[in-house]
Design brief:
Radius of gyration: 22 Å
CATH topology: Multidrug-efflux Transporter Regulator, Chain: A, Domain 2
CATH class: Mainly Alpha
Helix content: 55-70%
CATH architecture: Orthogonal Bundle
Shape: elongated
């Protein structure tokens, strides 16, 4: 697959894919005779994971560390698992905060609705 096709599948722009490549977050990508990157399904899967990590707020620093560990193979499994577990905990905390915010907004919205006894006046 070429970069434009991969971009459509994984949700990242071609610019972002190139940035991730230059940042060392991708394994070396083979190129065709004309110099175009040749992405395999493995790359698409990896890029899709990077998309979701970033979409859920993981920092580029954490993503770089995670990618570096992925390149090490089995040696970094425990730390990779910890990075993802920490990120999951962060998402849970954000979700709880958003639910609290939603509750506060619901109360405020309700305060602007006319009460039934006011409708009859």
């Amino acid at each position: 697959m070429k970069i434009g096709e991969v971009s459509e599948v994984c949700g990242l722009s071609a610019h972002t894919i190139r940035f991730y490549e230059k940042s060392g977050m991708l394994p070396e990508i083979e190129r065709s005779a004309d110099g175009h990157r040749q992405f395999t399904p493995r790359y698409v899967e990896w890029l899709t994971l990077l998309y979701w990590l970033r979409e859920t707020g993981m920092s580029l620093k954490q993503m770089r560390r995670f990618a570096a560990l992925a390149k090490e193979g089995d040696e970094g499994i425990a730390e990779k698992r910890q990075i993802l577990a920490d990120h999951a905990d962060t998402l849970k905390a954000k979700r709880a905060m958003l639910e609290k915010c939603e509750s506060v907004l619901a109360i405020k919205i309700a305060s602007y609705c006319p009460r039934d006894d006011e409708d009859t006046k």
